[in-house]
Amino acid sequence: MTSREPGPALLTLEILTRIMGLAGKPEQFYTGVTDEIRELTGGRLVVLVGSRHLSSFEPRILHVNPGRECHLCAAASFETLRLETPNFEALEIWGPQEGPLIIRSTLLQLEMDAAMVIPLNSASKKLGAIFVFGLPDSKRLPTVREALQETLSPLAKTVGLLLENTLLIEEQENLLEGRTR
């Protein structure tokens, strides 16, 4: 698929249209983003990691999709992965036995073949990342890698901006809640 084809741009626009209205509602936004990424990629597990504060990057798990798999995030490999989130600079897709050790060990623990990381940034700020595990048809990854990157790279930039807005709203809500106690 080349960048001249409208498919990836239209798909990105369609996804953004669905999640933009959720940016002011943190829990709904986190759920909406992971729902869309899971549907788009076919991943078996999607984990959204984001900063606790906008002033400094303190990663926390914001959402796990499907929710019934939250228990997997208690594993040591997920704790390391959460802390390593700022080190992922670009959208990456890994097949079996590819990628950094933390990705390979997490895939092994989950008994899955392929993974992806989508860093979420705003301007020069690192805000988090979306990790997708259990990509389907890992044998075809070399052929679909370019199409996924073409669709997800522009999406990641806008989701990063929306995440920043959502985190700001969440911080404001926490401040207000703290003042009314």
Q: Summarize this, please?
A:
The protein has 181 residues and is of the alpha+beta class.
Detailed description of the structure:
The protein has 181 residues and is α+β, with helices and mostly antiparallel strands. The protein has 5 helices and 5 strands, in the order H-H-E-E-H-E-H-E-E-H. The chain has a 5-stranded antiparallel beta sheet, with helices on both faces. A hairpin with a 2-residue loop joins strand 4 (115-122) and strand 5 (125-133). Helix 1 (7-20) runs antiparallel to helix 2 and helix 3 (76-84) packs antiparallel against helix 4. It is globular and about 55 Å long. The chain starts with 6 loop residues before the first helix and ends with a helix. 35% of the residues are buried. The mean pLDDT is 85.
The share of residues in helices is 40-55%
Mean pLDDT: 85
Order of helix and strand elements from N to C terminus? HHEEHEHEEH
Task: Compute the number of helices.
Answer: 5
- Strand order across the largest sheet: 2-1-5-4-3
Report the radius of gyration as a whole number of Å.
16 Å
Summarize the SSE layout with pairings.
Elements: H1 7-20, H2 26-41, E1 45-51, E2 59-65, H3 76-84, E3 92-94, H4 101-110, E4 115-122, E5 125-133, H5 141-179
Antiparallel strand pairs: 1-2, 1-5, 3-4, 4-5
